[in-house]
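[recover] target loaded
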């Protein structure tokens, strides 16, 4: 895929913060107040405030039942002329938690002098009400300890029974109607309600990872209400989901290979000193966990899947590579799997006291709402084979060519309300297609495990955006301390400069 890019003109369209009265009759107001938790004591603390916004449960029925979104704002340090809405990804990540944790870093950017920064917990996520809750902490612990890798007919039947039970728990505890209205299309409508409640005719948007999908779909449906957009770690909303999963697995394997090369340069690396043999050593180390899980502290055990989850978590960030290296060394030396389990816990949202946040349940529910729900066994078996081939570090060696259907295959049918909402979305998207869209700033890391670099290239080409290439490893890069990237993002959102063609950082 080539880089067919054009210039991003950031000196135009200066009315990004003009007041709006759209949806005034059916959009709630936000009553801002003190955040009850999570606010630090840094220099930006006095500028941070929290609130809630009521939005329709079903966007196609604006006067029907409502749900509540949690929101947070970093006020502009001077006059507020614009609003930047941020989504940190997931799906299932809390935007409120992101803003509270990143407030000082955001406040250091020039664009926050005249732009408010607003983040929200998407429907069903974090502190929004209702919250998706499918499983108790004990049930999640039991699922993580279950052996779901047995590909014998009996093993597949047992795994599907568990997955069917997960779907039923979501249905019973969250409700079928809400589960059908958790998709990205409904979140896009919520973003527009948030824009109207903030009194803006247009917004800027920063979307990290899955958040880029929200931004790109918002651009498709409401191009006249979006001013500037930063995409970091692009997710292509139009790509085939199965091919996307395989491409992502391939990227994780690429980063695993890089970790392995780095490890083999360290004396005493458990994976040996030959990068070509590192994968074999890794498999020899973790595959026995399918039969004999390792103790992981506090009565917990590390099985094969948790070891792979911990490995995958470390591949998101190079600063976690030393933890992965020492965790593998502990496992090889018989010291248990506590370090690897701590990495897996980060991925699963496990916290102090054995509690889980709702990110795992929200990730599942939103993914099932967006689809596809693979019920064709031949297609499901083919996907399992492709994933094993793309990322052999995740392969437990027990593949038979068959695989269990996942929980989405047993998800409750789409309700009439969800179907109506989806049809409304398609209609609006088609009607807006002829309206010119803004050219975004697209940030892509050359070795991003979760969102492959090639996707960022394609999104930049398709949207006429400017591509910022970050040479390195890790998932996303903007507003995280890379001066080159942050300066480009700041200039773009500050409306101070033109970015002429692609940029390498």
């Amino acid at each position: 895929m080539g880089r067919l890019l054009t210039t991003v003109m950031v000196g135009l369209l200066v009315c990004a913060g003009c007041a709006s009265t759209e949806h005034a009759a059916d959009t709630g107001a936000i009553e801002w107040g003190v955040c009850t938790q999570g606010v630090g004591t840094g220099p930006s603390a006095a500028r941070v405030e929290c609130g809630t916004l009521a939005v329709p449960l079903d966007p196609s029925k604006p006067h029907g039942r409502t749900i509540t979104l949690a929101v947070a704002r970093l006020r502009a340090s001077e006059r507020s002329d614009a609003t930047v809405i941020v989504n940190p990804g997931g799906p299932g990540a809390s935007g409120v938690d992101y803003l509270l944790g990143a407030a000082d870093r955001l406040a250091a950017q020039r664009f926050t002098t005249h732009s408010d920064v607003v983040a929200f917990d998407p429907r069903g996520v974090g502190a929004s009400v209702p919250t998706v809750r499918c499983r108790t902490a004990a049930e999640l612990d039991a699922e993580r300890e279950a052996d779901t890798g047995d590909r014998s007919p009996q093993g597949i039947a047992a795994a599907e029974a568990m997955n069917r039970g997960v779907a039923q728990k979501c249905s019973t505890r969250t409700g079928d109607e809400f589960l059908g209205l958790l998709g990205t299309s409904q979140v896009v409508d919520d973003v527009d309600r948030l824009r109207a409640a903030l009194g803006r005719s247009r917004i800027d948007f920063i979307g990290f990872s899955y958040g880029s999908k929200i931004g790109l779909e918002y651009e498709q449906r409401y191009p006249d209400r979006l001013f500037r957009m930063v995409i970091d770690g692009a997710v292509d909303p139009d790509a085939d989901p199965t091919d996307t999963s395989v491409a992502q697995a391939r990227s994780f394997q690429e980063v695993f290979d890089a970790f392995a090369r780095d490890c083999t340069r360290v004396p005493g690396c458990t994976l040996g000193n030959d990068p070509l043999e590192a994968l074999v050593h890794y498999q020899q180390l973790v595959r026995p966990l399918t039969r004999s899980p390792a103790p992981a502290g506090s009565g917990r055990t590390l099985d094969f899947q948790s070891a792979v989850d911990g490995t995958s978590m470390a591949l998101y960030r190079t600063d976690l590579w030393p933890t992965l290296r020492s965790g593998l060394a502990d496992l090889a030396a018989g010291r248990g799997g506590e370090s690897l389990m701590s990495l897996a816990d980060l991925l699963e949202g496990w916290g102090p006291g054995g509690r889980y946040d709702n990110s795992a349940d929200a990730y599942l529910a939103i993914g099932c709402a967006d689809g596809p729900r693979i019920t064709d066994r031949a297609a499901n078996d083919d996907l399992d084979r492709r994933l094993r081939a793309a990322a052999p570090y995740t392969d437990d060696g027990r593949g038979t060519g068959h695989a269990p259907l996942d929980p989405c295959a047993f998800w409750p049918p789409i309700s009439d309300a969800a179907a109506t909402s989806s049809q409304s979305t398609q209609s609006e998207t088609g009607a807006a297609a002829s309206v010119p869209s803004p050219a975004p700033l697209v940030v892509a890391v050359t070795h991003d495990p979760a969102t492959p670099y090639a996707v960022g290239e394609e999104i930049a080409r398709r949207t006429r955006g400017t591509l910022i290439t970050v040479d390195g490893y890790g998932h996303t890069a903007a507003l995280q301390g890379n001066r080159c990237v942050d300066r480009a993002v700041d200039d773009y959102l500050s409306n101070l400069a033109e970015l002429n063609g692609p940029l390498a950082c």
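[recover] notes: The mean pLDDT is 90.
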